[in-house]
Specification:
By secondary structure, the protein is an alpha+beta fold. Helix content is 11%, strand content 26%. It is built from 4 helices and 13 strands.
Length: 287
Amino acid sequence: MSAIKGSMGSESDMSGGKGLDAPSAGGKAAGPLAGRLLYRDKLLLVLDKPAGLPVHGGPSGKANVEDFLPAFRFGYRETPRLAHRLDQDTSGCLALGRNQRALRKLGRLFSGGRVEKCYWALVEGRPPQDEGEIDLPLKKVSDGRKWRIEARDDGQRAVTRYRLLGHEGERSWLALRPLTGRTHQLRVHLATSGCPILGDPLYGAGDGGLHLHARSLSLPLYDDRATVVVVAPPPARLHAALSACGWRPDAPLDGEGTGVSVDSGAGMGHDGQEPSAESPAKATGKL
């Protein structure tokens, strides 16, 4: 399977002539999302969501991803919309549909399990095997004031594949591929298995911020084009813990646990520069 990253050709006819460097996506209107555009084509945008920013608004009125999406129209009439969700404290790849047609297509891909998602997590402890699968049904429970997710026999089916990428002492660095998309699935699966994610205030492992990063998305969005693969660099707050477990920032992405094998250096960085479409990446489709 081949994969590409970057522009799907010129957008000038569809973006009102503003091109790939539309100033609204990199200026003040983009707020905390300025400089965080990882990928763009005619149907799809992928942002690198920072930890701490919720995707939807809530009773508190706190700023959220949807507040800043008008800055990413790039000349389109419609404001892009979320194709899926990430927890507030999870960083990394967040896909947006640029119009209703795109949202419908992305919705079918996500609901049909055709989008390959890979997360990186730093956890307390080490799984019993270096590679395996967690198959535990999950259920939302509430005491009338607060809710949480628990592993219960009468819950919805939830499956997560994991692979050990490195470890140091009592901490491990894992690549995770959820085969289902339940709320808090990765957090509960790991906590229940004795390896809670570092910094998870709800399911264990204390303070310091949730050490969970949506590393990559692989989206077979086009029937006549290669699979779109997008990779988000780990945030600086995770570098020390990752490095202790063996991660090297200059290492090639192939074999690094992204869920795909991609050419080093492909993609758009936080400088907002558009990735090259002349050097397509390749994907293995394996965790």
